[in-house]
Write a structure and sequence with these properties.
Blueprint (H helix, E strand, L loop, with lengths): L1 E2 L2 E2 L3 E4 L2 E8 L10 E4 L2 H9 L6 H18 L5 H13 L6 H15 L4 H40 L5 E5 L16 H8 L4 E6 L6 H12 L4 E4 L4 H6 L5 E4 L3 E3 L4 E4 L2 H10 L4 E4 L5 E2 L12 E2 L2 H4 E5 L5 E5 L9 E2 L1 E4 L6 E4 L2 E3 L3 H7 L5
Parallel strand pairs: 6-7, 6-9, 7-8, 9-12, 10-13, 12-19
Antiparallel strand pairs: 1-2, 3-4, 4-5, 10-11, 11-18, 14-17, 15-16, 19-20
Helix pairs in contact: 1-2, 2-3, 2-4, 2-5, 3-4, 4-5, 5-6
Bound molecules: 5-S-methyl-1-O-phosphono-5-thio-D-ribulose.
5-S-methyl-1-O-phosphono-5-thio-D-ribulose binds next to helix 2 and strand 11.
């Protein structure tokens, strides 16, 4: 996607120095566009854990490049031991997004099939690049399939703007390019369909306010920021036609883990008869899980709730306290939306019902 007219992905190897991996430090957005360079596994672990990068797809792509960095640094005589240590450290950086372990396992598998260390290094790099390229390509396809849903609603509304509500950031910044929930929006925009996006602010990290609203502005998409609790009201008064969110992990039965608050949006959508879609590339499915309640839910520091970071009038970054000193805060970062509340899953292969049989029909090789 474009930032101030220049085309970027969210992660890329440095030209002529592929052992250096560039990321956009998302903690600084939307106030500053800062590119950070990663050269060690511990930098990659910190970048994922401390959310310089975030969003399931990008977490996976970053872990893939983390394994490539590990391969660059590993001594020849202890290569696989070094790779296993890196896999463990990267795998523990965040618990909920399936893409993280999926990417690590994919690089490890390709590395293990090679015999010489130089071939193993080459395999780590080419697999990390393939994961990133595939992520972008799959999101683009999600956009092509999901666009048709928006087109259909637009037809029913006789061309009146389609109002779409989204939660957190399942946009370009959560992937390598395009995004999952945003890709159908970009597709519909390209097809000339009038639309408007309600952006949940997404406390406590404010990914909606800081990232999604900024991303949509960069793309010239009409959008309005709302508080996390406003969605139900807007649905009741007929201001939402469609909900599209992303997911960090979806079971083979269609239960969806996504940013905390997603479940409440799904309940409100069901009560108001509004379609609730989840957009995801296949790398986000957990083919081993039958029940969403088995998905590990990240619990982050309570300080992320009691403090908030933004800029003051001079533009410098400030963190201020919202709650009384000593306030206890519990920061559950994700929740589970049961499959029965999901109208459909928008994947790179098409749109499917959130049922085990329909998912298996679309992805027979995994089930
Ligand atoms: O804590 P984050 O910012 O990594 O959470 C991101 C989300 O919840 C997204 O909606 C999710 O990753 C799905 S889109 C990749």
């Amino acid at each position: 996607m474009k930032v101030n007219g220049t085309q970027y992905r969210t992660i890329w190897p440095e030209t002529n120095s592929p052992e250096i991996i560039n990321i956009i430090d998302q903690r600084q957005l939307p106030f500053a566009f800062v590119i950070e360079q990663l050269t060690t596994v511990s930098q990659v672990v910190d970048a994922i854990r401390d959310m310089h990068v975030r969003g399931a797809g990008l977490i996976g792509a970053t872990a893939g490049f983390g394994m490539h960095i590990a391969a660059c640094c590993a001594p020849d005589n202890r290569f696989m031991e070094h790779m296993q240590n890196a896999a463990k450290a990267l795998g523990e950086s965040r618990p909920t997004a399936r893409n993280l372990k999926w990417a690590i396992e994919r690089v490890m598998k390709e590395v293990s099939t090679q015999t010489s260390v130089s071939d193993k290094r080459r395999a780590a790099f080419s697999t990390a690049c393939a994961i990133a390229d595939e992520d972008a390509e799959f999101c683009k396809k999600i956009g092509e399939h999901g666009r048709k849903l928006i087109e259909e609603i637009s037809r029913r509304k006789n061309g009146q703007p389609v109002n779409i509500l989204t939660h957190c950031n399942a946009g370009w910044l959560a992937f390598v390019d395009y995004g999952s929930a945003t890709a159908p929006i970009y597709g519909a925009r390209d097809a000339g369909i009038p639309l408007h996006v309600w952006v949940d602010e997404t406390r406590p990290w404010n990914q909606g306010a800081k990232l999604t609203a900024w991303e949509l502005q960069q793309e010239g998409i009409d959008n309005t920021l709302i508080t996390d609790n406003a969605g139900g009201h807007l649905m009741q008064i007929g201001m939402v036609d469609l909900v599209i969110v992303g997911t960090d992990r979806t079971t083979r039965t269609g239960d969806v883990a996504n940013k905390i608050g997603t479940y409440l949006k799904a309940l409100a959508a069901r009560d108001n008869n509004i379609p609730f879609y989840v957009a995801l590339p296949s790398s986000t499915f957990d083919w081993n899980l039958d029940n969403g309640q088995e998905i590990p839910i990240e619990i982050r520091s309570g300080g992320e709730i009691t403090e908030v970071t933004g800029t003051d009038a001079s533009g410098s970054l400030q963190t201020v306290t919202l709650a009384a000193p000593g306030t206890r805060a519990a920061n559950y970062s994700f929740d589970i939306t049961p499959a029965r509340l999901v109208t459909g899953l928008i994947t790179e292969r098409g749109i499917t019902a959130a049922t085990p049989a329909a998912i298996a029909q679309l992805f027979p090789e995994y089930t």
